[in-house]
Amino acid sequence: GAVVSQHPSRVICKSGTSVKIECRSLDFQATTMFWYRQFPKQSLMLMATSNEGSKATYEQGVEKDKFLINHASLTLSTLTVTSAHPEDSSFYICSARLREMTLRETQYFGPGTRLLVL
Amino acid sequence: GQNIDQPTEMTATEGAIVQINCTYQTSGFNGLFWYQQHAGEAPTFLSYNVLDGLEEKGRFSSFLSRSKGYSYLLLKELQMKDSASYLCAVRGRGNDYKLSFGAGTTVTVRA
Description:
Helices cover 0% and strands 53% of the residues of chain A.
């Protein structure tokens, strides 16, 4: 099946710094990438939808100036957490939708990035 | 908005059967998905239902009743490796392919 990678898999940073997370579709072109956040023992919460070459669409309550998303190509989307604070510590997961994908397998998920802000 | 409910935890014995229920109330409906997620890993796709009825795939089956806003995932012949969180997700109406997830059901398989 399709493969989506994320980098880094784990990052620890100091409060106030910015962290960039990359999401790549390795063997297919992704028209759309989704960014989720998951807190311990909770479900995935969609943060934003990213389409190649256009601005990301953010879900209600997600600060677009704090979570910067860039979808520069059909295989790469990045999420930058700016001025990170301890409450931003979470598991960030991206997913990608193929250019021509049936409804049945709508999204392939990356392995996730665990962010810890001290 | 979407409201998706599933039990928090379930425990079963190796070799047994477990049924995970999911109820949803959504503003639109365009398919229901089940994902498996092991701790610290990304979700993996298990099943998809858009029409009423049962979809069987090996040891896993998924059922949907759109009129009742109800689905279940049936895991048969449980194995220890099936211990994981199982997420119910609904795709709403529209072409954006966004999924809304339930909180997940943690299944623990005991020997």
